[in-house]
């Protein structure tokens, strides 16, 4: 008993020493408080199947032939947990086809009798106990799926459990392993991937934190993920030799597998959208000095011996968690905008979301801070799929405070729009002195305001435009790089601010292609919310001055307006030929069903996302010269242009009934997007601006 107490004390002191090195005193005390804070046994918000209920037969929604995934569940007793695990799978299912293989590892209870009563289940029975490693390898040998999902029997899946893992595997380059976000049944986070230090000790990221904390809700590369829920291609599992038998019966086999997969040139990722409840320790216990758990210490020594060379590049056990967490990133970039992007809301949001995706593909760790501090759970999850960590309330109460604490770790900061840049640029220079500061204009406000003043004839607007010009030029002079979306704006700034570095980073659109022909379409569409003054003016002008000129067309042309609109504007503009739909979740029905997109803008600046979006679907556009500005478009080749109301109406009517012209403009628009507004074009600019900053960041990390 005395020796046991001494070992237990030694283990506790070692954990304390590691925590002090990684978290400091304040973080360590908070961690201890988390562990001992009173909490409910179950979180009622989690869809947890009851454990202690009488068994009744049921069926699993499994594939009989050629499943995409083979779910492998090793079990040794604890029948009630196994049944609850299978019931959760039956309840939630998946879009992907899957089979379930339970490896009954000589269970001492009635597991075999009960499993025989569950339809859609494949069972492998061991006469003698083979342990976790042997059971998993036997299940993999019998699997038929292209992918293997190893799942503990003391887990319960939730909606999206499997499809989210497959999406990550499909979307991430060189992805070899994907793991789920594991939570305790009381709702606390158990693991958001893991870090391995140079002495072989592992650290479960986020343990005992809130599972909803944005710090743990973004996709990222990690050292390992728990074998409690681990997806891997079946061919890759066979290539690396499966779970290494030297770790039998259990422990460190999942970490060893991750290192073997990385040595094969693949990556290990954590996918928070796959949420799995894990009743940790039900089978193996939690005491590292007793039972199966005792193998954890022995197997760590084996692991270190096998991977000594790889571990030399890992941080020490005393290194801060933040340092270990971001070591796979090429650099860290903070992006600040007025609010969280919503691609269905506006063109700027669509462009920023596309930039996030490109930065993630380039290997950057992206942090996003909305100046208003707000982000919905759906927005956090959507950006998390792009590898973006959202700094929002309540986790981050004030962005300036976060910058003061973490600015030294940033390699670049991108400030979106003039208002945001004016607020944060001085603070960024002080708090993040080594970060490259990028000013993303989105569009030049002073140019848009000057044109609006010319249209409405107000001297007050002209004075505002002059003030905006002075402010934006000062911001450009204080930034390392300025992004503009239009060649026209780039040329303007080259004259107004010749000493500044100005780069073209335009709108970014995927090519959807033309999916319906000329004859299958009718009506007109306008894209854009009324929160942007040029859009509100454009629709009013079209309805008042252009639509009456189209009356001679039989049947009368109908205009569909897509985007946020005020109740006042809805009452003013809705009529027999105009429908204001508001914001729509899916543009495709309109892009595929309407015959012409209209962009009757009389003022504005930058590149118009409404024009790009329509052309990306092969939908021809009739535009004003302002709407077509800076987009390298040619009237009659890839767009029709009308400057005044009559010219606009004439161009629209000429195009609407001419199939040959319509097809020419459809093809021309697609080609224009491909050449000037593709992700590849934007990626070239980002590489040119950020690659040397990433190199410096990597050198700092290695040092």
TrEMBL record:
<feature type="domain" description="Glycosyltransferase 2-like">
    <location>
        <begin position="70"/>
        <end position="191"/>
    </location>
</feature>
<protein>
    <submittedName>
        <fullName>GT2 family glycosyltransferase</fullName>
    </submittedName>
</protein>
<dbReference type="InterPro" id="IPR029044">
    <property type="entry name" value="Nucleotide-diphossugar_trans"/>
</dbReference>
<keyword id="KW-0808">Transferase</keyword>
<dbReference type="GO" id="GO:0016740">
    <property type="term" value="F:transferase activity"/>
</dbReference>
<dbReference type="Pfam" id="PF00535">
    <property type="entry name" value="Glycos_transf_2"/>
</dbReference>
<dbReference type="InterPro" id="IPR001173">
    <property type="entry name" value="Glyco_trans_2-like"/>
</dbReference>
<dbReference type="Pfam" id="PF13692">
    <property type="entry name" value="Glyco_trans_1_4"/>
</dbReference>
């Amino acid at each position: 008993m005395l020796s046991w107490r001494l070992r237990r004390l030694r283990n506790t002191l070692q954990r304390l020493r590691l925590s002090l090195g990684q978290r400091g005193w304040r973080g360590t005390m908070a961690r201890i408080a988390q562990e001992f804070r009173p909490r409910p046994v179950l979180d009622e918000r989690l869809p947890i199947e009851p454990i202690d209920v009488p068994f009744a037969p049921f069926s699993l929604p499994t594939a009989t032939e050629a499943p995409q995934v083979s779910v492998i569940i090793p079990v040794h007793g604890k029948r009630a947990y196994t049944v609850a695990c299978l019931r959760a799978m039956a309840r939630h299912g998946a879009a992907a086809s899957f089979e379930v293989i339970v490896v009954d590892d000589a269970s001492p209870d009635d597991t075999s009798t009960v499993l025989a009563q569950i339809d859609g289940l494949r069972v492998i029975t061991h006469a003698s106990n083979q342990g976790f490693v042997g059971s998993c390898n036997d299940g993999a040998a019998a699997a038929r799926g292209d992918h293997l999902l190893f799942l503990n029997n003391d887990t319960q899946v939730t909606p999206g459990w499997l499809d989210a893992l497959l999406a990550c595997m499909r979307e991430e380059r060189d992805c070899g392993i994907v793991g789920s976000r594991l939570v305790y049944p009381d709702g606390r986070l158990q693991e958001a991937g893991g870090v391995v230090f140079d002495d072989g000790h592992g650290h479960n990221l986020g343990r005992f934190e809130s599972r909803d904390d944005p710090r743990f809700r973004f996709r990222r590369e990690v050292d390992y993920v728990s074998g409690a829920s681990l997806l891997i291609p079946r061919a890759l599992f066979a290539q690396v030799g499966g779970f290494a038998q030297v770790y039998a019966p259990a422990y460190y086999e999942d970490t060893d597998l991750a290192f073997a997969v990385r040595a094969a040139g693949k990556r290990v990722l954590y996918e928070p959208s796959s949420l799995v409840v894990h009743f940790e320790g039900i089978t193996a216990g939690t005491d590292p000095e007793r039972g199966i758990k005792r193998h954890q210490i022995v197997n760590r020594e084996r692991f270190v011996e096998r991977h000594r060379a790889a571990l030399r590049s890992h941080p020490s056990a005393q290194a801060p968690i933040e340092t270990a967490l971001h070591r796979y990133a090429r650099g860290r970039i903070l992006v600040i905008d007025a609010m969280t992007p919503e691609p269905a809301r506006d063109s700027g949001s669509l462009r920023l979301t596309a930039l996030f995706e490109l930065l993630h593909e380039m290997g950057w760790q992206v942090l996003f801070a909305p100046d208003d501090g707000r982000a919905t759970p759906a927005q956090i999850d959507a950006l998390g799929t792009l590898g973006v960590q959202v700094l929002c309330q309540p986790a981050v109460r004030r962005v300036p405070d976060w910058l003061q604490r973490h600015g030294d770790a940033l390699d670049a900061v991108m400030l979106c729009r003039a208002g945001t840049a004016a607020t944060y640029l001085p603070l960024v220079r002080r708090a993040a002195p080594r970060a490259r500061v990028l000013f993303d204009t989105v569009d030049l406000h002073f140019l848009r305001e000057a044109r609006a003043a010319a249209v409405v004839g107000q001297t007050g607007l002209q004075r505002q435009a002059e003030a905006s010009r002075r402010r934006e030029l000062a911001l450009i002079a204080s930034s390392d790089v300025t992004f503009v979306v239009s060649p026209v704006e780039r040329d303007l700034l080259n004259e107004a601010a010749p000493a500044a570095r100005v780069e073209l980073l335009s709108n970014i659109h995927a090519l959807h292609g033309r999916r319906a022909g000329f004859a299958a379409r009718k009506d007109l569409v306008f894209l854009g919310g009324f929160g942007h003054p040029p859009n509100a003016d454009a629709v009013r002008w079209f309805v008042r001055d252009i639509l009456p000129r189209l009356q001679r067309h039989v049947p009368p042309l109908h205009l569909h307006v897509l985007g946020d609109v005020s109740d006042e504007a809805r009452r003013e503009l809705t009529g027999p030929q105009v429908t204001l739909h508001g914001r729509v979740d899916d543009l495709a029905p309109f892009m595929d069903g309407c015959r012409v997109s209209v962009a009757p803008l009389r003022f504005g600046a930058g590149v118009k996302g409404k024009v790009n979006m329509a052309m990306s679907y092969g939908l021809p556009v009739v535009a004003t010269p302002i709407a077509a500005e800076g987009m390298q478009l040619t009237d009659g080749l890839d767009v029709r242009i009308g400057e005044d109301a009559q010219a606009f109406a004439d161009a629209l009517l000429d195009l609407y009934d001419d199939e040959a012209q319509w097809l020419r403009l459809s093809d021309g628009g697609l080609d224009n997007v491909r050449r000037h507004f593709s992700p590849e074009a934007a990626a070239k600019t980002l590489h040119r601006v950020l690659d040397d900053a990433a190199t410096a960041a990597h050198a700092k990390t290695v040092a």
